[in-house]
Amino acid sequence: MNYADLLRVTLPETALEITALIVLVVDLSILRKSTLRLRVAGAAVLGVIGCGLALMTIPLQAQGGLNFPGSDQLLLAAGGSTAVAQVGILALTVLTLLLLFNSKFTRNVGEFVAVTLMSATGGLVIAAAQDLLVIFIGLELLSLGLYILTAFAKKSGKSAEAAMKYYLFGGMSAAFLLFGFSYLYGVTGSTNLHRIMLGLYTSNAAQAAPLLYVALVMIAAGLGFKVAAVPFHFWAPDTYEGAPAPAAAFIASVSKVASFALLISIGTAALHVFDGMTSRISVSVGFHLQEPQPIYLGFQSAWMEILTVLAVASMVLGNLAALAQRNVRRLLAYSAIAHAGYILLALAYFSRTPASAQAVLYYILTYGLTTIGAFGVVGAVERASGSDQMEAFAGLHRRNPVLAAILLVLFLSLAGIPPLVGFWAKFNLFAAVLGVSKGAVPFALVALAIAMSAVSLYYYLQVLKRAYVTPALDDSKITVHPVTLTALVFIALWVVMMGVFPSILQVWMQSFYAAM
Amino acid sequence: MLAWTIYLSFAGALLEALLPKDKPVLVRWCALTISAAGCVLAVLGFVAGMAHGRTVIADLPWVPAMGIRYTLAADGISLVLVLLTGLAAVAGVLFSWNIELRTNEFFAFYLALIGGVYGVFLSYDLFLLFVFYEIAIVPKYFLISIWGSTRREYGAMKLALYSFVGSAMVLIGLLAAYTTSGSRSTGLVQLAHAGLPVSFQMWAFPLVFIGFGILAGMWPFHTWAPTGHVAAPTAASMLLAGVVMKLGAYGCLRVAMGLFPRGMDPWGFSYLGIGSWRDVFALLAVIGIVYGALVALVQSDFKFVIGYSSVSHMGFVLLGLMTLNQIGMTGAVLQMFSHGIIAGLLFAIVGRIVYERTHTRQLAELEPMYLSKRLPFAAWAFVIAGVASMGLPGFSGFIAELQVLVGSWTAKPWWTAAAGVGIVVGVAYTWRAMQLAFFSDTHSAAHIHEHGHELAPITWPEVAGVSMLVAVSLAVGLYPKILLDAIEPAVKAILAGGGQ
Fold this sequence. Notes:
The structure holds two protein chains of two kinds.
Chain A: H1 3-9, H2 11-28, H3 36-57, E1 66-67, E2 74-76, H4 80-98, H5 109-128, H6 132-150, H7 157-188, H8 193-199, H9 203-207, H10 209-226, H11 235-242, H12 245-271, H13 298-323, H14 328-348, H15 354-385, H16 396-399, H17 401-415, H18 421-436, H19 440-468, H20 482-500, H21 503-514
Helix pairs in contact in A: 2-3, 2-5, 3-4, 3-5, 4-5, 4-12, 4-15, 4-21, 5-6, 5-12, 6-7, 6-12, 7-8, 7-10, 7-11, 10-13, 11-12, 11-14, 12-14, 12-15, 13-14, 13-19, 14-15, 14-18, 14-19, 15-17, 15-18, 15-20, 17-19, 17-20, 18-20
Chain B: H1 3-18, H2 24-49, E1 55-63, E2 68-74, H3 76-95, H4 103-122, H5 126-135, H6 138-147, H7 152-181, H8 188-192, H9 198-215, H10 224-231, H11 234-259, E3 266-271, E4 274-276, H12 277-297, H13 302-323, H14 326-358, H15 363-366, H16 371-374, H17 376-390, H18 396-411, H19 413-437, H20 445-451, H21 460-478, H22 481-496
Antiparallel strand pairs in B: 1-2, 3-4
């Protein structure tokens, strides 16, 4: 194995890991005696620098990724969707770290930042992984970090409870995922995504179709847990509620980006299965002509059915359950479930062209950005009033007009109101779905999604109503650390900017695909 | 030049939000200056553009990857409605002169709403139109829920949800038209010429028409309108009835009828005389006219009377659109303008001039107040507005409703007969409200002087606003040619199918 090539592909991951260790060392040595404020600032700044370095190494990655030693099977991808997702993960990690200023939930800030960076490394691995084993390693690296981050507020019982629930659900779903992977390996004899897709078109696999369904359902359970899709969503409300605000923001954004990047890899592999084939190969596609044998169509049709079910369940249940929430964090959790539903719809109707991948990435990146901002505001309100119930937001426009304006922009964007980026992301996503298929079913599904996002306006307005209409319970000002406030203003400005000029991000994303 | 109405309003909204909240005088004058400047631009644009058919104001690529362009253009219909928006905006500021609570935020939301409305009337790209349409909806929620009165949070939320269900339907139609046409463009002209299949138009037309129709107060989706109008502060209800309901009607005309004209073709069978979507919506419009008028007749709240009368008058707009002939559709557009002015005036009198002084809108409580003597200005303004609303010759409402009725007679006579009932009831409810609120003489003047405290005198912004709206309605009523010259060619172009 050529380690130089491996290093070139994994430069961003390496940079992050090294930074994580540096953060730990600096926090435990130089800053050991310093005040908490200084330690928070030091750790966060180091983390931000590390992410910046990792960002700079992305253009240096080997084009086309890294093959498995001695074969033509891709191990880690680079460029295209992978690069977009990796840049997104790093940028969102930076923003999460900026929320850390002024937070007092822990004294072990060095560890917090280090674990965050390691988790982000897991995200980077997942975004690139093209092999079941690498995927699993990446997922575990990401998840283990998330469990720790959730439990970080040691004085809060809720935090411990949330972490425990998250961990148990996570461990279970990882087991399901491995089980599914093992069947997939058994059916096709390979752990490489491309080989698996190809193998699923052979007649051997066709006879094992029921086995394939079992495998795919198990995998969907495992990945559905990561993206919080119904019915694997039970951890989400508790975790969002219990975790410290920066950790919750990280879970809601970075971890989602990584998981959806993985789903994009799977979809891309499935649809580009015959790419680069020069010689004639014999595959048996749908050869069971004698009734009543069902026609077997390989991976994509089965996967699409499963994803569609998850998508519909998520957007209906997520939106309806959010209507009843009185706690803003739980509300954000259910809204995250709903958003995952919209994205899963685009993954179910996935296109061979990069259009779908770009639409999904556009959605998840801008959603991640918006959610980090939302958690930033929630965190600030929480610190001032000690509560994350909706009532705590009453009179926010008097207590801190800037924070209220940011909340207005972010929540309206989440609800999909133009000219904010959330609207454009939705439009793009649904146009991608309809671009793949113009049948009655995708039309109906898109109509359902749009109807559901009209429902979502109600609960977002409930929070905004508290912030702007309801009189304040106490009139004390809410102060935010200048760094955090700058980050939040930056996020809100970008949400507006990208909504007014949607092509900024689109052109930027396309530049990654053009290079391939 | 007209594009600056949009930019000016949004810039004004931003400016207002940044002004200090403890200087209401400054904030008010700023708002008046900005809206007046917008109005002047609208008038100038109208004068400059009325002879030229459709003129493109701006046409830039916006999202090249999806073929979305930033296209602003104006034909006669747009010009008339932009003019209406300019006038209504100025009047709204004048009648909000007494807002003391969070004045800067009020006018920020107000101007954002106005900017969105200008944008809708000038957009010639479906995507852009939708963006402006949604921008116009959000500020209404805050205007009503913060500065409103009776059950304001309920009314605001109901309005917001109705609006968004409507816009969700429009969005589905937009996406469907975009992906079905295959033209990689969302331009209204390009989509209209994309040759969308008739089977597609057959389901897209009702979807989009109802989507916009909800905001136009189409029966049976009108229920947001009375509660919203009643809950809203005066300026907001003036804008709601004056221009926002027109957004819906404009969308019905420009988008639903402009893009999916074959959706109005006969189904090939008919049941009880209903044989096409056109018949369905004409029937709903007629029901709206009569139902709105009848409900207005029995209201005990003065503002509800006006609210339901809006539903009734907007029925004429929708009926005029469904006539599909030159005179009926011209009447519909003129009715949009006329109702915008007259409803604004009525809401101003009820919500600002009367309610802010008497603190009640219950007709039963207004009755013993002897308002014709104590507020003669309000009483006479309401008489003028009332007769204009009834459709007395000489005011804009007359010529508009007459054209709609003539048009519908050519299309289907029974529509006219039913709508005529609505006009008669319209006279009755206006008369009843006028009688009860102002001219009741059950108590003697001496009795009032003993019990009634002195009412605040009429202020100059109120006089200015009333005079402006009355003058416009009279001018258009006496010399409708000003507007008709702009509307008629635009309607002709739409009917010919080549308009967009």
